[in-house]
Amino acid sequence: MTGVRICILTMFDDDDSVFASKLAGALGYLLKGADIDGIERAVRAVAAGEALYLAATARRMQAFFAASSGGGHAQALAAQPCPGLTPR
After folding, report:
1. Phi and psi torsions of 52, nearest 5°
2. Quick check: pTM over 0.90?
3. In angstroms, how far is CA 23 from the centroid of its own chain?
4. Percent of all residues in the chain with a pLDDT value above 70, rounded to a whole number
5. At CA 59, angle to CA 58 and CA 62, rounded to 5?
6. Helices (H), 1-88
C-alpha cells in the first residue's frame, strides 16, 4: 500500500481552507456543487496519485504560493495547516 490519498469535498472555497488542505497533503479539492461525474473523476485521479483541483482553485493556489514563496502566510499555514485536524 502506498498510503492514504485525500480528496477534499467541501462547501468552503476560501483561500485559507484551500491552501491549508494542500499543505496538509490533500491531492484534490472540490466543492459540493460539483457534478457526480466530476466527483468520480476526482476520486479516481486522486486514488491514482494525481492532483486534481478546479481550474480557478488551481490558479489561485499557483499565484498564492508563487507570491509567498518565502513569506508569512504560507509559512504560517505550513506550520499548522489544519489546526482542528487531530492525528486520529
Report:
1. -145, 120
2. no
3. 7
4. 74
5. 85
6. 15-23, 36-47, 55-67, 72-79
